Structures are given as C-alpha cells and as structure tokens.
C-alpha cells in the first residue's frame, strides 16, 4: 500500500509493535469518548421522563436524535477525511462532540435537549465513520480482524461506562449530574485519543490520488450495488435497532410491577456490556478459523436466544438473557462492521460509513418504534419483534454472503478486515 508520507511499500503495523498497541489504545479512548456520551442518557431515561413529565417513547428520543445526527453525518465525515486525513478528521469530531456533550445537562427542556443532542450526534459521527477505515489502513491485514474486534470491545467499554456512571449518580443527585460526569469522562478520553494515536502512514489523500480516481458519488454507488455489502448494512440496521430497543425499554419494564427495581439497580444491568467486550474480541480469532459468514450467523442466533430469555418473568433470567443477547450482538457487529470495508473494491471509508449510517438509522428508528410496541403491547411483543428482526438479518446474510459470491475479498475473506 502506498501512502502520503512516501512509504511506498507500507503494509501496516504488526501485532505486538508499540505503534499497533498505541492505535488500539487510542481507538479505545475514542470509543469511550464517543459511546459514553452517545448513550449516557439511556441509563437515566426513566429519571428524565419523570423530571420532564414525558412518556417513555418521548424520553427515548434523547437517544434517537443523537443517533439520527450520527447516521446523517457519517458520509460527510468520510468525504472530509478523504481530503484532510482520517486522524485529523477524527480529532476535530471528538473535540466538537465533547464541547457539545458538556452543554447537554444544562438544557432546560426536552426540545432544547433534543436539538443539542442532534448536533452532538453530528459531531460524534466522525469517530465510527472513520475508525475502522483508519485501522484498516494502519494495521497489517494479517492482524486487522483481531484489531477490529479489539476496537469494538473498546466501544462496549464506552457504552457501558456512560450508562453505569450516569444511572447510579443520577439516582442520587439527578440525571443532569450523572450525564455531566459522563461528559467529563469523555473529555479525558478525547485527550487520550489525540495524544496516543500514531501518525497515519497508510492514508492516500484523495486530492493527490491518481487522475481519474472515482468521485464520492461513484464510490458510494459502487458500494450500494454490491449485494454482499447491502447484506452487511442490513445487519447493522436490523440488529442494532433491536438491540437498542431492548436496552431503551428494559429499565421501564424492571422499574414497574412486578419487579419495582430502582434506577440505581436497573442501570447496573448495563454491566452486561462486559459480555460484549469479551465476545467482540473472541469473534475476531474465531472468524479467522471458521469464517466470517459462519460466525455472523451463529452470533445473531445467540442474540435471538438472549432476547427470548428476557421474556421469562424473573430478574435472574432477564439478566442472563441480557448477557447472552449482548454477547451475541457485539460479536455479530464486530464481524459485520469489520467485513464492510474489507469487501469494498473502492471507497473503504464510504463502505464503513454506509454501514454506520444503517447501524445508527436502525438505532434511531427501531429504537424509537420499539417503544410504541412496548407501550401498546407489552414486553413480550417487543421481544418477539426483535427476534424476528434477528432472524431476518441471519437469512439475508446467509444467502447474500455465500463464499462463491464474496466479491473482491473472496480470496482473503477469512481473518482480514
């Protein structure tokens, strides 16, 4: 791979090198900064709903508006990064998001919170839009699947920390205090990313690429015509949508009869994210051995099983089901998100961005719509809906990602990103 810096034979950092470790640590910090802020309000939705006197679905819009903003922004961020570089674009994004995140707890009304959260999502879009493209260009292809799993594991730590800090603190001192503390954590993580990330060496600036290279619309069109990539985008939309719907409304279920648990306790359910931290790292190694397609299908079926277990009306079984669901979801996400830029023959940043657009569109739309199902028909109806989405995703991927139709990455579809 050629690069802007003159590394004509640049192949990427090898696993075990200092630069490889710095990339993983930097992206872990970026994951914490991004996902702690993005989902901190999810840990205090019942408190926010009570304080502002709004319904569960209305409160959940504080999560959905941020993810809508993120979904809208990922493609513009990828285009900007093609011009100024992945690392510079990510640094701008994380700084802007941190400033906006510090202002959210100061907003007095739901409408003002939603507006600021939308702009915060626009800024946050620069991290997931570019992280895997940056990783793919800077890490040797032999180690890229494992590195991608490590990055997704870092995002789970971010999502977990935001929810687990905001919930208990919010129960004691108000949801605004809990969210503010998460924003301060994100500020420190942002600084860690900027200080740790090594200089990019595999990036080719679009403006200096060979004459006749495809433009943005051409790169997007190429990725949207690829049936395998469309199947991977569907995984993001369907699985993330169902996953967020479960986490958005499980707290409301457990704080109502017959469970009657306080917010400080229900927010600890987000510790189930640790199962995703483990599974997303493990699936990288297993994909290299058994193939991405097989591991994607298995992970999604595990997710569906976990959702089914949450229908059993005991706290212990709900918790166990949440652990299984979370492990399966993050394993599937690690496979699909890493596979998308690998399949692209052109426009890797756009391939990753389209995946993230669908991923967060699912979070926004299904995450909100699931609340209407929950409010009208109850938890079991919501759970069955999420299971149906997971099964649809499995069938779509299984038939669209057959080895014989694996596209440009067929020759090395196992163990590379």
Automatic annotation (TrEMBL):
The record's subcellular locations are:
Cell membrane
Return any one Pfam family short name: MFS_1
Assigned GO CC terms: plasma membrane
Single GO molecular function: transmembrane transporter activity
Q: In its keyword annotation, does this UniProt entry include NAD?
A: no
Which UniProt keywords are listed?
A: Cell membrane, Membrane, Transmembrane, Transmembrane helix, Transport
- Stretches assigned to the Major facilitator superfamily (MFS) profile domain: 23-405
Q: Does the keyword field hold Cell membrane?
A: yes
Its placement in the membrane is given as: Multi-pass membrane protein
Q: Which PROSITE patterns match?
A: MFS (PS50850)
InterPro entries, alphabetized: MFS (IPR011701), MFS_dom (IPR020846), MFS_trans_sf (IPR036259)
Its domain of life reads: Bacteria
Name the residues that span the membrane.
Answer: 20-39, 59-80, 87-107, 113-135, 142-166, 178-198, 229-250, 256-275, 295-312, 318-340, 352-371, 377-399
Family statement drawn from the similarity comment of this UniProt entry: Belongs to the major facilitator superfamily.
PANTHER family in the cross-refs: BLL2771 PROTEIN, INNER MEMBRANE TRANSPORT PROTEIN YNFM
Per its record, how is this protein called by name?
A: Major facilitator transporter
Q: Provide the species name.
A: Psychromicrobium lacuslunae
